[in-house]
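Practice problem: predict the structure.
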Amino acid sequence: MLQIQTFDARAGGNVIYKALAHPLAAEAIARLYASLSGSVALYDPDHIAEALLALHPAPACVGSLFVHDVAEVGQVRGGMTAQPLTALATSGVNTVLIAAFDAGKIVDRILHLLPPDAAVVTLDQARLPAALMSVPGRYLDKLNFATNFAFFRDDGALSTRLISANYWANYGAKAIRLWLRLFAENGMPLATWEQALPSGPGGFAIDSAEVRARFGLGPFTGQLFIHAIGAAGHDVVKYALDTYAADNGMSLSCTHDANAWPSDRFAGLPAPAAGERVLLWLQNSHAVAIPAGTVALDRMGAEQPVHLMQDVGPYATVALDVGAILPGLRWPAQIELRAGRHVVRPRYEVTRGDRTRIAHVNVERDNLRADPGIPALPATLGRGYLLPFPILPRARFRTIFQPTPMATTQGNLPLRLDVFGRDGGKVTERFLGCLPRDLDLALDFDDIAIESGHAELVYDFRDGGEADGWLHALFRYEDRASGHVAESSFGGHIFNTAMTYRDEPQSYSGPPPGLSTRLFLKLGDGRRNSFAALIYPASAAWHPVSSTVLQLHDADGLLIAEAPVAIPCSGSTIVWPHEAFDAATLQAAGTSGYVLVRDPTCRLFGYHGLMDNAGSFSLDHMFGF
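Answer:
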């Protein structure tokens, strides 16, 4: 496993990780290493040497490590035993490499401790170009590394289209540019370019077919690295990614952004059902190869991992046939990916007949423990943590639900389903039991008498069990006529209460009870209409009806029309932009326009996608900003 820290509970994402992992940083560090000669000592004032050496193994000339914390003397980092800084003067090294950015003051403080005539090198020599900095005065500001990856493909059969908006403009950003690099399947760069975004909060798209034509590329399946320059207020690059049949065929999928942070394990990967082939797209997020034997697949709860015995090169993409690695394993069994912090959230591809669908796995936490406070939550928090998902209209769609363990410490899952009609009335509930980690439950809503609405997964401790708040499930939807399938997955929160517990309920803007909603809904692509299944979940009683507004924006981000929507508490609805707005108004919005779902009174949750009249549709959870 890579010895890197990707998340800091106090500050969110670890900025130093992004500073070291950026593709241009990798090139700069390689140049820095190439300039070293003689004997080199590494001084680690900021505790980043382990991450530096994991992502960029040092040349042989780097042979000693020095620290100033006496408690760290004797520790082994990157294969070197840490020595006291005071021993540096007599070490006889020719060069001291200081593992720090903005290191000028550090250099001044230790000059008197260096060997005579020793040169000093710092990571400031591996900084990104100044033109890529959003906050020039502070290199390790998180806004300088508003980055992410996207699965990107144009292979003649399937194409991809990344859709988002310049939400940084809402925080005062004046001129946003995207620095983009496309990596081929073998990890080599195919193209590097910049794209200016609208000056206001306008929508934008990056289409693989257009990129392929622009740069004269052949077929590719790889990944797109995205760096937002000029970011303000938000350091995460959020997007929706459509995968569609290049020949206007029947395949269609939508997935959420890649989550930006590598994880040791991922979960929520379904085993193949009869007649299906499941490919896991493993995409190396770093400039260092993934060694053979590092990555493994395991049936959830079995603890019998099967390892991938091949190297995966820097930034390379490898398709893993799940059925070949775990033969005989069938849906509804679930699979755990052990990735050793080498990849961000991977995609998986399911092929059945002539239709393909793409979905994503989720981060499996390794830092959670059972929380004894959750079973004892007071009545003021109502049902506490819940996970809402839509039940699509039964006449056309089959809805299937699977709970998914999403933390290495989850040995059991005490769960119940609460089912609601669109009017917010509770239809029924179903106690699922205190489920084991190796569960193979798949609940078909054809067994529940409801035409459409939504369900909420909640904790239920009547048979005991533990909880940590990290509640997840996978939802599968099948068109009864065409056989087309879409699936999504997400996690639980506490929704819409005046009282709080730890960091819940969350809000898109401001702390509770100032709950609000800002959800992004793309428009149709010319052949298919977009839609959103909006849910008003409430852990306890909240406003009886939402005050939701669909705000239609054009490609420049200008608000050009609004349409009200009223959703009962614990109710849901499906909205279609082409029904909410007339054709002329939608045409004025343009193909890069979008709908912002706004509500100042409550936090809604939603799933969005595209749908046509030939039985193809896509679905994944929405994102907000």
